[in-house]
Structures
1.
Amino acid sequence: MKPDTALDADDPEQFSPRWHSESLERVFERVDADETGLTADEAERRLDAFGPNEIRSTDSISPLTLFVSQFRDFLIYILVFAALLSLGVGLLPGYEPNYADAALIFLILFANGVFGFVQDYRAEKSIQALRELSSPEATVLRDGEKVSIDSTELVPGDVVFLEQGNAVSADARLIESSGLEADESALTGESTTVSKSPEPVTEDTVLADRSNMVYTGTSVVRGQGTAVVVHTGMETEVGAIATQIEAVEEQETPFQAEVNQLGKRLGYGVIGLIVVIAAVQLILTAASPLAVLLVGVTLAVAAVPEGLPAVVTLTLALGSRRMVERDALVRRLSVVESLGSVDVIVTDKTGTLTENQMTVERVYFDGETYAVSGTGTETTGEFSRDGTVVGPEAVEPVLRCGAVCNNAERAPESAEKDFYGDPTEVALLVSAAKGGYDIESPPARVREIPFSSDRKRMSVVVNEETSALCSTVADGERATPSGSAPTRAYMKGAPAVVLDHCSHVLEADGPVPLTEERRAAILANNRALARGALRVLGFAAKRIDDPAAPTEELEDDMVFLGLQGMFDPPRAEVERAIADCRCAGIGVVMATGDNVETAKAIGSAVGFSPDSALTGAELEEMSDGELRQKVESVEVFARVTPEHKVRILEALQANDHIVGMTGDGVNDGPALRNSDVGIAMGIRGTDVAKQASDMVLLDDDFGTIRDAVAEGRGIFDNIQKFVNYLLSANAGEVLVVFVGVLVGTFLFPELFASQSEALILTPVMLLWINLVTDGLPALALGVDPKADGILDRPPRDSHESILDREMVASVLSIGVLMTITGLGVFFYSLTSTGQLVRAQTLLFTFLVVVEVVRLQVIRSRYDLSLFSNPWLVGAIALTLAVQLLVLYTPLNLFFGILPLSLVDWSVIGVGFVVFLGLNVGVDFLFDRLFDD
């Protein structure tokens, strides 16, 4: 292992662009490392010197900028104008400046700004935390062992392992490669994949042709290899053009855009109301222009929903954090809204519907099927035929092929798991180990032709010593003399595909021609195993003379060895999760690359209708129109490729479905990107799939999708509650001021002619109401629990605005009810006492009480009790306590109000009871109206 050293991060030589043209020895010398990687201590020192391996965002918002942005809004400008107007009045002849009102308006504006800043800042932090959670991992050599680390911890000198599906997280020079191909389109613009090899290229080679380098932001689409990191972070090629590949930014959600548009419409509406009310007062009364202006500004203050955008963003961010706790990582906040509308989920089988814990249970060789005992990764077990235990030599050629044509490996004793690698390949290693094969000393590999979804097979070329297990080797020849090392090609893959590349089949006495009868017998056994819910792979081998021969030559005329059938049990709760989704109006479709018989067997076990199965081959024969009709009745798609999944997605979307699509492979990227909600697997998913997705399942469990849909619906409910609450409260305040001034102008013309008496409520009062009721109580709605039976509803119509007809009707009706009861309280007090200040105080307190109680009225429509959300209980209690503090302490002087007597409270109580009674009646009417 390379001794600990300190690389100089400020040395320009370290960052010169000649890595591609130098020998590997020189590259290692320059990064002060070797093929054994770094020690943990040295890596930590280099991380301190070079900094995290990340592309720093150029548009990050500082806290100061975020705070100032709280006041950059047209509606906030209206409130500032109201404060300045309060001071400006004192400059007019005959008027005194209202310093108290101005100070309070500015204070409340500042408090609102702080509140909005705290919410936005927390939302930014939540979003950043989600980004950090979704950062890819890298596999490196540290202290001589292969370990997985966060990609931000990569440093120059690290030796990294690359394989199909990995996103490349640092610029690196290849050490070795086997069929390695990379997609560099994000960096070079070239659409075709690039073959990679370690050999140096000339110094003047352009970036797109540097075949021995891999770069940040690209991805491995085939093969595997190792490389040494030469640049990280902002020193990478991507870092040099960082503005072009910023980390994925949170897009403004449709609802946030709707909220912003709503604010603008409210602003224009307020201006229109001011003009109307000013015209009425000036034409029909003797009110002064200044009184008219103050009424207009007060009306504007009542209409401003200051906290709406900030609370919406925070609710989405907090909801996303809760979803992470349920193992669903939301990479974009907008997906929360889409989740509420999803009506079809297209899911993979392996690892999502099943446990992804493969165990070989059957081995087929020479016309006989053998049972294999043992489960999981335990390497002890027995082979039996018809209940009789037999020696492993009976199936040795099949076991050997499964172990050699394999990229899994046993993990070191210090690791948390027994094996590294794909679960299918791990199962093959375990079965070989049960047969006595030395899985820790594989033969030297000369070449690999990697598996892909198109090829449906993998082949390797190896130099091997004859196994001591038996005298029959894979190609049917007798063992070669000790010391010789025959070169052989091994293949594994879909049985039918493997058979297509075979000319012979191995029997106990040696290879014989693969006749149609023998082929039919093998395929019949394959179907029999698949009907037992086993995933079946075929195996083949042959001796070769030229390892560098073309792929077609290497993979033709193989000798078929046999089959291995492995079982991956369904997840315990998946059948219930699928049933829950169907109850929620969500169709569930399984799309798998497995044999149709296996797909049917697993599908039947978890609740799918096997009669509706469709294969990829049948799908290819269909036109787009035929597929659009077929997808409405098919629940199981078998032997499908990623390209088939894209067609399935397009057919469903053409039928106006909102589709959630799962995926884990590189080629699943298009389907994930184009689906309404792309769902990547967190455990077995490739980095490319994760980066193309909207949501990552951290546990790969379909049940988590069900839980995420429920959580998403709950989040959307909470936003609807808040919007309903805020807009109905503001509508009530606007109508109270608007109608109150009009009514007062006619009933009390002399009283309402002056600038002070013309105000039903002062701007300060309205700002205070908005501050205490739109603050903590409204925010507490963001953590409301989900309603019972939330998955018993149909999905939300994606074309329906959050401000639907029912909500608009509710907002307007509540505004009318608040106006009727509130002005009843106001004018009763005004006529009975003749004190405007006392009437204003009653109305001021009545609105605070009604608005916080309105919270529970809204929540009751979701069958939620008051005490189901302790945060809301606390927020309401604190709001009422603060209101009492304002009423019964010297603070009332600043608000221009009086302490209330028991008689005053009784008047408020009567108005409150009337309001609740009318509200119940209106809700009953709306239930009947909108249900019909």
Note: The domain at 359-567 is CATH 3.40.1110.10 (Calcium-transporting ATPase, cytoplasmic domain N).
2.
Amino acid sequence: MTTHRISLTELERGTPFEYRHVGPDHEAQAKMLAHIGFGSLDELTATAVPDVIKSAEALGLPQARTEAEVLQELRGLADRNQVLASMIGLGYYGTFTPPVILRNVMENPAWYTAYTPYQPEISQGRLEALLNFQTMVAELTGLPTSGASLLDEGTAAAEAMALSRRVGKVKQGVFLVDADCLPQTIAVIETRAEPTGVEVVVADLSEGIPAEIAERGVFGVLLQYPGASGAVRDPRALIERAHELGAVVTVAADLLALTLLTSPGELGADIAVGTTQRFGVPMGFGGPHAGFMAVREPFARSLPGRLVGVSVDADGQKAYRLALQTREQHIRREKATSNICTAQVLLAVMAGMYAVYHGPEGLRTIARRTHRYAGILAEGLRAGGVELVHGAYFDTLTARVPGRAAEVVAAAREAGINLRQVDADLVGIACDETTGRAQLTGVWAAFGVQADIEKLDATTDETLPQSLLRTDDYLTHPVFHEHRSETAMLRYLRTLADKDYALDRGMIPLGSCTMKLNATTEMEPVTWPAFGQLHPFAPADQAQGYLTLIQELEERLATVTGYDKVSIQPNAGSQGELAGLLAVRAYHRANGDEQRTVCLIPSSAHGTNAASAVMAGMKVVVVKTGEDGEVDADDLHAKIEKHRDELAVLMVTYPSTHGVFEEHITQICAAVHDAGGQVYVDGANLNALVGLAEPGKFGGDVSHLNLHKTFCIPHGGGGPGVGPVAVRAHLAPYLPNHPLQPTAGPETGVGPISAAPWGSAGILPISWAYVRLMGGEGLKRATQVAVLSANYIAKRLEPHYPVLYTGPGGLVAHECIIDVRPLTKATGVSIDDVAKRLIDYGFHAPTMSFPVAGTLMIEPTESEDLAELDRFCDAMIAIRAEIEKVGTGEWDKDDNPLRNAPHTAGALGGEWSHPYSREEAVFPAGVVAAEKYWPPVRRIDGAFGDRNLVCSCPPLDAYDG
């Protein structure tokens, strides 16, 4: 008998990661291909993808490596980072993540693979965790309404500027920023202000608002509390004067300091913003972290981003949901004042749980310890003859050492400590939760001072002003008092996770959202200290591993997309949109074409497109969408001609928002270019293109990418995300840059889009690892299987539900839209009924009513295996049979399993009066009792939740005590 000899090299390679990432194996792929009438993946995509956009060459990426090899390579990169004790401050601080939160939230797929809680019945755990976060922020800031997190402190302050302009009494005037605000925040505000015509004035407000500025009119004021220099000042008089001028006052506050200091709300502020990073979230070289915004009651309905509120379910039981759930961008589009469509849910959950675990007493203890170290440090410096600029501070000192600042910073670095050099004379020093005695000794030595910690501890007084000490109670709800032991905390986190549906339970077939595998190998390096504990403003030579990883990822993303340059700074897809449009605007202005301000956007586009365009200083002109789902070519050409001299850019999603490969995309791009415009290809659907077509080569000038879609960063329950912007060479000079890290972007850039130089750098190892694990061929096959899976589902469901749009060969791209409207018209069964009934079958619903009302957009991705695809199709087919029973009158149109879905375990108890059985309710066809997912609540009343905007403490009766 002859045996095949396998070489040692082949054996060493092991199983390619591609086979772990792609769900259907070769046998399953063959079955799926046969079902839709194709013999191979190449044959399928050769038919589906128009010839005019196909890539001529394979992706020029390094060969795929094994999981062990990639982890070893990442270890090598991590080892090139030098993590010193960080005392730089400026909004980023060392913190200790409680291991119970690290392991059971940050590293737990039940939390990080979940989607945005738009299906609240199966998101009750996350929603409760976010309500904890909102309660924490609202009570610490002293303002009644807090959102469910924003992207970072800088963008939160920019959102506050826009909110102030929208709701304030003064409609003109300037936005006044105190010079002691964080420098990155000021820079982000200036980036955001200029395109919209807002004048930002930065001034020293320590003595009040200068008369010459007051005369010009002020619509908003931003203060930092404590200041970037560390100064703690009483802002009451300043806030009162600003209100006299009709201005809306925003205070950027440090939550840890607010455990000891009077809250912004009590001081008179209208808005509070900031970051929750120091509440247990690693610095991660700048992100991701959960920003926050809290507002006075009159501004609650204008709050950007998401807001968790309390509603009731069908039984009248309290239940959580996103209040005002339909995002502003989809209602107001070009009239929106914010393009925020995401949040930082995973990080907000961590920060909220940090407060739950420590409680108010624990937080105060951490704050007092931090302040105490700063006080002792200050007294030691003063005793050694070092002048301190401020006498009142919380955790940050500014020392004046004329001409010696660089020398002191260098000496501290030699001792393993990073300080901040403010200028030639000033040094900033920040204490935090991780500061220890060794750091104090090292700092004193760097200044040439010797001191006795024990002696100073016995003689140093508190330095916080008596008039600013906090006297009110906060975090009084039981949730902040009941989980002190690790056992209690562990069980609380498990209880919440069990209420939710995430990818660790089953398929989340959301169109446009690409809920695919977030592999453990990709996730593991994120929590390594060498990646997690680096300050974003640390010297570049201490971050060589990070900078190499970032450079390689940017280069490989450019290769994949056919563009010339990529910036990974934008920390959400919406921010990538804004960055790309700002680059286009800057390019036209550099060419003297300042009149080019018109942005053409198809009517089917995602709502953030229009909002981003307006924020970039552009005028939106809507282009019609045809009945086939494609851009209406006649209307497009008419609009191009009408606005030829003013045309700045066309924003188009490809494949289209309707899930098809439009055959005329190259002609569309050519027409726009002929008129002098640029083409923005929205990268939301890139999972259908990687390895098959490159936007930068078939007509695009700029795209944003969603690393939390195509490149495997997990959605985290609605964040974090990364939205890099990719451009052709002529737009590269106008990519984002950053004032505190010159290497983060071109000198001619548009300014920072995010607070951190490289955005959410802490999660970039995920996408770097994905590309490294898959290689060019693996990425291409992943795309091909994504297209195969979507077409397989479309083919299986087509006899039961109309598939709304198809492209070449009657095929869809990576997602398909099924039309429920005819069934609704015939039977009264709504799209909501179908979505909620899917919960009883053990599924998260597809995307509802986008981009077409009354439809479901289904995207299976390449990671779901054939068994799961079939389970979903079987459920949809069974639901179609249930709809038929309603249509024929076998089931009452108002009392049937669809209208009453989802069914909880509690609903089964007691008297059963429905005309269908308990078994039909909770164990429909294909549902195995032992594997049943039980939703914690019945259908939630959305209208009730919007009318009753409850958004602070969880109700007392939501807990068992």
Note: The chain has 32 helices and 25 strands.
3.
Amino acid sequence: MFKNNLRIAFRTLFTNKVYGLLNILGLALSMTCGLLIFILIKYHLSFDNFHHNPDRIYQFVTEQHRENISYTSSVPPGFANAFREDFGASGTVAQAATYTDVLVTYDQKKFIEEEGTVFTEPAYFDIFNFPLLSGTNMLAEPNTALITTSLAKKYFGNEDPINKVIKIENKLDARVTGILKDLPANTDQPAGIFVSWKSIKGFDMFLGKDDNWNGITTVLKTYVRLQPGVSPENLEKQFPKYREKRKGSKNVHEYHLLPLKERHFDERYTGVMEKSSLWILAFTGLFLIVAACLNFINLSTAQALRRSKEVGIRKALGSFRVQLFWQFIIETGIIVVMATLIAIALSALLLPNVNALASVKLNLKDAFDLKLLAFTIGMILIVTFFAGSYPGLILSGFRPVMALKGKVSMQQVGNFNIRRSLIVTQFMITFILIIGMFVITRQMQYTRQKDLGFNKDAVLMVPMGADSLDANVTSLKNELMRQAGVRSVSFCFEAPSSYSNWNTNFRLLGDAEDEPFTVDVRSADEQYIPTFGLQLIAGRNIFPDSLGRECIVNEIMMHKLNMQSPQELLGKQVRFNGENQATIVGVVKNFHMHSLHDDIGPVLITPFPKFYQNLAIKLNMGQMNTTIPAIEKLWTARFPDKLYTYQFFDKQIADFYEGEEASLQMVRIFSIIAIFIGCLGLYGLISFMVMQKTKEIGIRKVLGSSVGEILWIFGKEFAVLILLAFCLAAPMAWWMMNKWLEDFKFHVELGPWMFAGAIILTVVVAGLTVSFQSVKAALMNPVRSLRME
């Protein structure tokens, strides 16, 4: 019986090729999205769950109370030892300082390790599960290192890496004592090199002071694995006493325990994926699959009248209703399985694109596992029964006598109002996606076109590394200035807008206490302002030999200090970063220090040569092709022990919005798929209407109706449905996109053209979909239409 049903199902499918193709395409696209979204959600939910007892691992974080509350994923360097002294029995504590883009040298070969070089304590490997494959000495001695398998192969080839010595940033020799298994992709602490914490004093003076409570750097992370039964809530109640360690500051710092399982989803502490985003992704995938199923139902029931005689003959020959029901379920199952096979192939093909869009590291081996297999099988079964049950019940329920006489009415194959409701729902979500696409696109254009307060074009950023300003670098600057394609050169800590912060306390000289706000220090020389095109609105530039005795501030500083004009700031002496003092000699126009997500805060620009980490080179646009190789040649000659790298400043700015650009691409894809599936639903609805109104169309044509008048019968139907969907979707889209824009301190305003564009685009595409069936019905011979009676 099953074999016979299978043969009939294939025959029916090939007889109605258009019907089968539309259903397979709709289901395949929606199931592809469902599979990829499931893979993506599964990946994000798996972060750092491979450690032993991850529910007992926490990260110490800081909630900073100034004028506003801010958050950082670190604590002061002195926190770890204080916790060990006070609560050592509560858990195991380890510090980890992670540095990116570190220069590693071995046997005159140089490498830049982008992901992470971590200085940490032996206890770190008691907290986290990073298996040691060979070697011993888990960083118990100074100047020792552990490296991963892939880096061992990269540095040493087939040589035995144990006891080999690598040089880090040309100032620390580290002996390799062990090889770790490569870290999995689903961790928020990727690294390839782990160096003994006892070596940190020679690498970073700030972190080398174990009792330092005078600042926080996001380089440092401090973790604890609590003992069984220890309550993190009760432990947190003891932390307020650590506030007293920060003497002389009006700012209140609250320390908290962040569960490891929540870190990936908490954007306050560098989390990369909010759980609400996962819910939105899951809902989008569910909507696309359900919409495709509903379209399948619409198209199937639209074909019902054509198959009514088939059902009548089968029933007359003795078939039971349950047999006919399973016949239609098998037909649906064949379509679903074919769609699933296409979806699996498309998912594998599109996985690299998903990696690029979502900034993840999925691979086929890890993505396609037992969980995905279970999800796929479950999806096949649910879609088959959901999409096939209703048409199966309708078709198998025809009375044989009425079916053979062709007396089956359209009312017997489904409620028309239900179909309209489904179409409205589909297009509501389509409108929300399209409006979202327009808003995100406009905001991205705004970020590229807005005046940021500086010139970001044709500026080359060359990393020098910390503590690298010497006679060679100064001499290099002079040589660069003699190049025809170089306009100016500046030493600086960072560019005007960057991820790196140097926030510190601030007060006017003579005041007893610090101001309630912090200032962002931009350590730079006198060429900083002309190189980046900052605009002086009062005073002058700093002198080349001022060396921290002079500074320039921005307009916001004037407002923070309740002054009426920039001139009032000139000549004021300030104290910052502990005991540093400088005189304000100039005021610059406000510029964006970070992305447009953040407000503009107080800035202080002053020359601190020991903190210069970058060389900023302003180039002539027309001579870049020859100037960039010349710069590399000069650099390599001066610093043969360093690796020359660079990045254009405007690329750094673009990287601020990498996540938004990825969101835009995903919304565009989902919008196209939603439009396609929505149009499939319209096609099914119009097909149903054509079957329902065949006799009416014939009568109207006999009575003299034109083709245009008949087309309007169908046109007004879809126009009303789309307009209703738009009216319902517009307020929801407005609210959702307003919430999204709230994440930007500087953003576009929602305009009517965004909503008008969505409805125009949808009407055009939907109109083309409807016109195919409606024109075909309008041009049908009325004699043929009336004979259907």
Note: The CA atoms of residues 601 and 627 lie 35 Å apart.
4.
Amino acid sequence: MKKFLKKLSPVVLVTTFLFLLINHFLLHSLVISYQKPVENVKTFLLVSQLIYYAAILVLAFIFSYFKFHWKFLIKLLLMYIAYCCVAYFIDMTLNINNNKYKLWNFSKAGIFQEQVLFTLALVGILAVLIYYLRTKVKFLANKAPQLVFNEGIDYFFLSQILLTLILTNRNMRGVVANTELFLQLNHRITPSSSYGNNHFFLVTGIILYISFLWTGISYFLVKGARDFVKNRSSYLLAISTSLFLALVFNFSIQLSMGKGVPFLERYPILPGAMSFQIIVLFLLFLTIYLIINQFWIATNLILVIGGIFTYANSIKYNMRGEPILPSDLSWIFKADSLLGYIDSSFIWYTTVALVLLFILFFVLKRFLFVGKIITSVKMRITCLVIIAFIFSSLFGLFLDKKDGKISDNIPIVSVLNNFQDITWLGNASNARYRSLAFVWINQMTTEVMERPDNYSQKRIKEIEEKYLKLSQEINQNRSEFLNEQTVIYVLSESFSDPARVEGVELTQDPIPNIHQIKEQATSGLMKSDGYGGGTANMEFQTLTGLPFYNMSQSVSVLYTEVFPKMKYVPTISNLFKSKDRIAIHLANPSNYSRNYVYDYLKFDRFISTDTKNIDVQNEGISPSDASTYRLILDNIDKGRSQFFSVMTMQNHAPWLEDNPENLEGSADDFTSDQNSKLTFYSRLLYQTDLATKDLLENLSKIDKKITVVFYGDHLPGLYPSSAFLNNPDSQYLTDYFIWSNYERPKLDYPVVNSSDFSALVLEQTNSKVSPYYALLTEVLHKASVDKAQSEFSPEAREVAEDLKLVEYDIVSGRGYLSKNFFKLVNN
């Protein structure tokens, strides 16, 4: 056998080279459809075409010495059909965000590749003619042995044909044209309309590189398909299956975020996005195969995990407009909270299906792909080490970013990261256009806040002195201390007046009492950072005064990604004694690590669903606002000043409420399901309105100063995106008011950020400020979200920059700020 393979080795090398020449011409022919070739390139292409035909002739001559078997033609046909299916699947994936893409337009998808079929047909016809001449012409007959297609050479030829199909696929021209060097040539060397000499030689180099890389891969794929058909467990099958599953789950994950629109009307996804995610998934799946080393078990595990992840990603994206992120993995250990988002009937059917699949799995385990994937332990460990090295190198590239840029000329990664900076668009858009895998790795390797250019110890000390003087000036005109009264922060889950959403019609006002309160007290709209979610982020900003808008756009959950890294946590609760701090949130205490957060902030008590001996009733699906408010009243000590951080749960999804029956909400453009949810949500708001009125009436009877900061954290995720087309800002505006049980003036702050509340409540109550709150007061007056940055005066820009420097020092910096910056001199 070895002698036979040795005899064939020159044939293998020559055949590989001939296919390379054929691919060179075919791919160049594709790429030049992007740009017009210059005269020299036309000459190069003509020479390449002549070489192409010469390669076909030589290849046909080699084929004529092999004895064809009908099984080879069957394998070739099956491989071509499988390739067309996969190629079309990839084309669909690339066009997920292309609203002009026609699903069943096979001709425009370019999957049949007529040029390759013409080439193969020509090789076959010439091989038959040459064979006929050799056998009929006497002096040519029996000059060379008749070679048989043994299995090795059989699959080698199939792999070369597969390589040609891959390299000359229509989408490959986009891969080549969007490489970093090609883009540089377009912008720096020749006009973008010309295909010059440099382009030609660059594409030739890319063809050589890809051909060398994919020759082995295509052979593995063909041999892996053979092992699948033969029910044989092998490392080749694991490799080919990992790649196939990577293609499948790349599509399902991206589709779970819905169909969008092209970026800049040109890119359904950005260059390199699909390749990047497929490579990451391929390596992850291959790792699972190597660790488990049983093909049947590993495959089923990947299918289950991938299916669950895709479905969960779809749920989160539909509810919050954001994909699953690394910080969400903590929810794996909170099954009871997760199941609350899923319809009970679906859980039942899924459980039954999983049980049946589990039984089927064990029955088939005895017959399908029995045996180990790799018998050698050393080989498995070596492969795992190589994969670990690839991942560590990839993470290293992201960690070594400079000004958000990755080093140049790294295949796929450099273009994907550097081509278009869309980080500012947030995780949802980045996941859609750059892939979810990119967002995950970027988030795990990016600093939570970029270092400001002028950050230094000297600059921080200057800021301290500046706002120490300002705090002294402010305090000359203020006579109160906030910690001499009780302050209650009420984050009302999903509270926002639905009447502000365009097209919504309500049969009656669901919140008349709160509207009346807003007319009398300091009130307005609050700018939320998220839609349909982001409660923990709003609470973080409200307590600390540190705005989300200064953080890195890769940050998703402030409590889990930022809070643990902070040098110091400046919260409004610090103005009160530890024994006077109480948190109330009728949900799982470990959600977003709140049990850790409140413990770190030295809250004396955290009342949650785990707290014993509390009376809680539901309104709809969740604990009622009335129950939450009752817990406030039960824990108020009339003889002490206290701080309450309160979050309600009543208006959290899913929504269900019967009363009042005459209150209904609807919009012409909404589906029946959306109108139903709107009606239930509006009725829940009605209950919030009654409970809030009752709370304030009870607080007004208590003989001590009390101030309530009430605000909605975000809009409910029930509205379709079309509801915000004409007024995008309305998607992120909720209601707020600051009420006191004693007479205070109504201040004029129509739009604020959640990070403004502490400065605002200090001003509302005429309370003295620390240097830190003097800074936040300046931000409230001059540089908050009610003003566009383009409208900032030079003084406002300086204030905004001061806040950014202070925030960086607290979150990611060296901690230059002294404790005196946060101290308030009490009486």
Note: The longest helix spans residues 197-229.
